[in-house]
Specification:
Two copies of one chain form a homodimer. Chain A has 450 residues and is mainly alpha-helical. Chain A has two domains: 107 residues, no CATH class; 325 residues, Up-down Bundle (Na+/H+ antiporter like fold). Chain A is built from 18 helices and no strands. In chain A, helix 5 runs parallel beside helix 13, helix 8 runs antiparallel to helix 10 and helix 16 packs antiparallel against helix 18. The first copy, chain A, is globular, with a radius of gyration of 23 Å. The termini of chain A are far apart. The relative contact order of chain A is 0.14.
Chain lengths: 450, 450
Amino acid sequence: MSWFYPILFATETQTANPSLVLAGVLLSLVIIYFASKLGGELCSRINLPAVLGELVGGVVIGISALKLLVFPEGGLEATDSLIIQFLQATANLNPGESGLVFESMSEVISVLSELGVIILLFEIGLESDLKELIKVGPSAAIVAVVGVSAPFALGTAGLVYLFGLPVIPSVFAGAALTATSIGITAKVLAELGKLSSTEGQIIIGAAVLDDILGIIVLAVVGSLVKTGEIQVNQIIILIISAGTFLVGTILIGRLISPALVGLVNQMKTRGEVLITGIVFAFILAYVANIIQLEGILGAFAAGLVLAETDKRKELEEQIIPVADLFVPIFFVCVGARTDLGVLNPAIPSNREGLIIASFLIVVAIVGKVVAGFTIFGKPEINKLAIGVGMVPRGEVGLVFAGVGSASGALSPATEAAIIVMVIATTFVAPPLLKLVFKDEVIEKVESEAK
Amino acid sequence: MSWFYPILFATETQTANPSLVLAGVLLSLVIIYFASKLGGELCSRINLPAVLGELVGGVVIGISALKLLVFPEGGLEATDSLIIQFLQATANLNPGESGLVFESMSEVISVLSELGVIILLFEIGLESDLKELIKVGPSAAIVAVVGVSAPFALGTAGLVYLFGLPVIPSVFAGAALTATSIGITAKVLAELGKLSSTEGQIIIGAAVLDDILGIIVLAVVGSLVKTGEIQVNQIIILIISAGTFLVGTILIGRLISPALVGLVNQMKTRGEVLITGIVFAFILAYVANIIQLEGILGAFAAGLVLAETDKRKELEEQIIPVADLFVPIFFVCVGARTDLGVLNPAIPSNREGLIIASFLIVVAIVGKVVAGFTIFGKPEINKLAIGVGMVPRGEVGLVFAGVGSASGALSPATEAAIIVMVIATTFVAPPLLKLVFKDEVIEKVESEAK
C-alpha cells in the first residue's frame, strides 16, 4: 500500500514513488512477454528459431519502432517512453516525477535482463557436459583463437588499406569483430536440440574462450586508445585471473559439490535444490563480475559443476520455468535497445557507415567460418555449423562501439558501421544456424536411407 | 561487459554503473537466500513455520542487526550498508558512486520483493477454490467487517479514554489495527496444508475483504488528517472501484479464460502456459494498482480465475520454482526493514511507546479473535484458528505508521507503538496459527480414535 504515501502526503524526495515504479515494471514485463511470444510463435511457424522472433519482437517494441520499451541512454528521456505516457494517463503519474520513475523502472528491467542471461548460461552449463567440453577443448581453443584473430586482422587491415581509415579506429572496429555472443548461439543450439552434440559443445567451448579473449582484446585496445600504450601489467593480470577463474571454479566446484549435495539432502523447506543452485551460480557470477570477467561465465561454470552431481536432473527441471520467465527479458531487451535508425540509407550520413558495415559484415562472417574449418582430423564434424555458430556478436560488439565512441576514437560513421555489423550478425546467425544443421540432418537421413 | 565503460572511460552521468548495480543485486540475493534458508530450516526443525524463519532471517541481516541488507529509508545511507562496503572492498566501487549504486540496487530488490508477494498471491489464488470462496463468502464478510471494526473501535476508544491521547492520533493508531497481512497468513496456511480447508478459505476470503476495507479506512483517516474532513466522493469512488474490480475481474476472467486456454493450446514455444498465466496476473495486478487497490489483489483474482481452467495443474507445477525464488525475497525484506530498535526499553523514549504497544497488541489479537467467533451455525469450524489467522498486520500496519508520521499526526511514541504492534502480531501469528491448527489435528485424531 506504499502508493498511498505520495497521494496523501506528497513529500519532496529524490527517490521515485515505489508503487509507480512497480506499475511501470509490471507493464514493461507484460509488453516484453507479449513481444517475445508473438515474435517467437511467428518465427517458429515459418520455421525460424524462436529466439530470432524474440529479438525482432524487441526491435518492434523498442527504440526503432513503437518506443514502448526504451532505456534512458543515447539521449532518450522519459517523454520518449510510451509506457511512461501510459502511466501518466492511467496511473496518476505526474510529469515532474516521470523522469525518476523512468530511470528506476529501466534500471529494474535492465537488471532483470542481466539476470535473464545469467540464468540462461546457468541452464546451458547444466545441459553441457564437462568431460565432453574438456575432450573438445583443443578444437575449441583453435576455433576460438582463429575466430578472434582472423576477423581482427582482416578487419583492421581492410579498414586501413581499403578504406584509408587511421590505425586507431581501424584497430577498434577490428576488435569489435572478435567476441561471439554466447547467449544467442546457445539459445539457438538448445532450440535445435544440438547443444550436447560435439559441434554444440565445440561452439560453446569456443564461445566461452573467445568471450575471454574478447575481454582481453578490449582491455588492450582500450588502454592503447586511452594512454597511447599497452598496459602490460593489467593485461597479464586479466589473463591470469581469467585462467585461474575458469580452472579454479571448476576444480573447487567439483571439490565442494558433494558437500553442497549433502547439504541440500538435509534441507526440508521448499525449493532447496533450486535455491542452492541459484545461489552457487550467483556467487560465481559475482566473482566473475568483480574480477572484470563477465557474470555469465561464472553462471556457466556453476552449471557445468552442478551438472556433474546427481541433482542435475531435478535442477534442470526446476530451472526451466525460471528460465522461461527470465530469458525472454534479455532477448527482447537486446532487440529493444537496437537502433535500426543507423540502417536507413535515406540519411546521407548513414551511407558511409553502411559501406564500411558491409565490409565488416563480410569479414565478421568469413572470419568465423574460416575458424570453423581449422578443425582437422575430425571429418565427421559439421565445420560450417561451428563457424556459423560463432557468427553472432550481440551486445559485446555494441560495448566496443560504445567504448570507442566515448573515447573519441571512432567517427560516427565507423561507430554506426560496428552497430550495423552487430545487428546483421546477430539476426542472420539464428536462421543460418538452423539451415546448416538442417542440411546435416537431411544428409544423415539420406546416408541412412542408402 | 558494460562494466568496461567506467573503468576505461569514466563519464559523468547521473545513472549508476550497471555492472556494479548487478553485482550489488547478485550479492543481496545471495544474502537473502542464505538468510531465508538458514532461518527457514532452523524454524522447521523446532517445529515452527518456515516463513517465521524467513522473517527472522531478514531481521538478522537487516537494519536491526547485521545491516547487510538495508534500504535507503529512515535516513539510512549507502555507508550504512555492509553490501556497499563489501562492493567498495571487492568490486572497485568508489565512495562517490556508492550512493547511486545503493539506491539503484535497493530499488531493484524492492521491486523483486513486490513481485515476490504478487507471485505468492497468484499461487495462493491458483490453490484456492472460487466456488468454496463464494460459499464461505457471507462468513468471510462478517469476519472481515467485525475484524476491522472491533480493533478499530477498541483501539481508538482505549487510546482516548485510557491513555488520554488526542482523537486524531488515536484514530490513526486504531486504523492501523484493521488490515490483515494476507501474505504471511496465506504462506503459513499453505505450509500447514490448510489453505483449501474451510477455515483456510474463510481466512483468505476475509483477509482479501479486510485488505480492501483497510484501504478504505486509510483513505478516510488520511483525508481526515489532511483536510480535516472526510472526502466522501473519494471514498465512494474507492468502494465502487474495489467492488467492481473484484466482481468484474472474476466475471470477465471467467468469460475470457476459455479463449486464453485456446490460445495457449495453439502455442508452440517454451513456457507458453506459465508466461500466459503470469501476464494475466501482472495485467490484473497493474489494474488493481492504478485504481488504488493493491497489486496483490489483482494477482489473487488472476489465480482464482485460472484455477478454474484445465491448465490449473500445469500452472501450479510451473509456478512452484518461480515462487520458490521470488517469495523469500519478500519475507526476508519485510524482516530486514523491521527496526527492532523501537523495542529497546533501555532507551527512555521507547518506554511510553512500549506501554501503548502492549495495549495495541492485546487489542489487535483480541479484536481479530473475536471476529473469528462471530461465525455461527457452523459448529464444526475452528473459529479460534480463523481469528488467529487474521492476526498478522505486516506491512499494511507499517504504511499507517509511515503515513501518520509523515502527516505529523502521530507522536514518535505512538508511531513506535504501531511498529511494535505490527512486529509482534506478524511474528506471533505463524507459531500461534500452527498451534491452533495442531490442536485441531490432535482433536480429530482423538475423536477418530474414540
